[in-house]
Specification:
Layout: H1 5-17, H2 26-30, H3 35-39, H4 49-67, H5 92-114, H6 118-122, H7 132-157
Length: 162
Amino acid sequence: MSVNAVDLLLVQKDNTWELEEWIVPLSVALANVTAEQAAWAPPGGGNTIWQTVSHINYYNQRILSRLRGIDPGPGVDTNEETFGGPGDDLNDSDWNNILAETKRIELELREAIASLSEADLEAPYGSSTETIGRELSRWMLHDAYHAGQIVLIRRQQGSWRS
């Protein structure tokens, strides 16, 4: 059985979203997080879980749009602008909507990746000189990195599994 680059990207996607093997995937890192826990700020500063998920959703939606051939529109001026949080109106409904958006984007990204051909992976990524395949391969690490951050925040707050 031969394995192609699309297959490898799907393995990475599965491992960074829902399949727990040697890393904690994002869906597991977010399981059972309440709005209050998501809005909790780590001692000494740093982003909340809520802010981190907003950041993940922003960039993953942009990649999904590009994979679908849709112009994602102008980006933000600074990366910090992508870390949106609940503000003063913290509620479970808003948090649950963000989690639902995260799941939708992640599943649609998987579908979009599965629909790619080997030739698609060699195409340029937007106006970049990088290929779609190389950009996706690196981008999988983004979710893994932030899932690790979420686990660390949950450990600090005492909400991570023992």
